[in-house]
Design goal:
Elements lengths: L12 E2 L5 E2 L20 H8 L8 E5 L6 H12 L2 E2 L5 H7 L5 E3 L9 H14 L3 E5 L12 H6 L3 E4 L5 H14 L6 H10 L4 H18 L5 H11 L4 H15 L1
């Protein structure tokens, strides 16, 4: 049997029958050096790196899950010493005032109290406190009852990030597998990119699935395994997955 793609991590063991008993937690790197710059995010990154020379105190980064919003926010926070504000801190922060930089992640879906968020946005604009927000949805789709928060957020310098071109999706896979300490043939990454749903969130799901399947079976990540993972993600039948795997086995030879 071929060796696994990486040695078991702490907390992983070998289950009866030779299969690996898994605990798949890993910590993605949010270091600036590990950020993958592409056409879909370079403007947002350039704006963050231009701080403190911002035209206004508010910045908003919009993008789908796993597109790199949190990575960008962490880069900016590390550079500026910004505090990542929790949902229960907004009102106190607005009352305390000040100009220390802040990050508010997932402003459109994390349960922030509307009045507290409104007060903090007002305080940021009044005192020119740098405030970076991230969201999945454009401002028009935010789940707030009044237009108070939305009207303030529309004044932010806004950047929509995407990662749908082949090169950037390939880079995302390289980083995802690198975070998991998994070595993968670049040809397999190209195979995945050509056939997957073109969303960063799907790349994350495929990397998780392939890492788990390879560890469970004690094998490297092959094109056959990649084909099976794609079939699983598409919800295809076992027979369809088998047909794709057999076809990929022929290509591997």
């Amino acid at each position: 049997m071929t060796s696994p793609t990486r040695p078991p991590k702490a907390g992983e063991g070998v289950a009866p029958g030779g299969q690996l008993a898994l605990e798949l937690g890993h910590t993605p790197s949010h270091a600036e050096a590990d950020f993958l710059v592409g056409e879909g995010n370079e403007l947002a990154l350039a704006h963050l790196l231009a701080f403190p020379n911002w035209p206004g105190p508010l910045t908003l980064i919009i993008g789908p899950a796993s597109a790199g919003k949190s990575h960008l926010a962490r880069i900016w926070a590390d550079r500026t010493g910004a505090r990542v504000a929790g949902a229960d801190e907004l009102e106190d922060l607005s009352r305390q005032g000040g100009t220390a930089p802040l990050v508010i992640e997932d402003v459109d879906r994390a349960g922030y109290e509307e009045a507290a968020l409104f007060h903090l946005l007002n305080q940021s604009m009044r005192d020119r406190r740098p405030l970076l927000m991230t969201a999945r949805e454009p401002v028009s789709g935010w789940p707030y009852v009044t237009d108070d928060v939305k009207s303030r957020a529309r004044l932010a310098a806004s950047f929509t990030i995407e990662a749908t071109d082949d090169i950037q999706l390939s880079q995302i896979f390289v980083k995802l597998f690198g975070d998991r300490q998994v070595a993968v043939d670049p040809r397999i990454i190209s195979y995945l990119v050509a056939r997957m749903e073109r969303e960063p969130e799907e790349a994350t799901a495929l990397a998780d699935l392939l890492d788990r399947l390879a560890l469970e079976r004690g094998t490297r990540i092959t094109r056959a395994l990649a084909a099976e993972a794609l079939a699983i993600r598409r919800g295809e039948s076992g027979q369809a997955a088998m047909d794709i795997e057999l076809e990929s086995d022929d290509e591997d030879e």
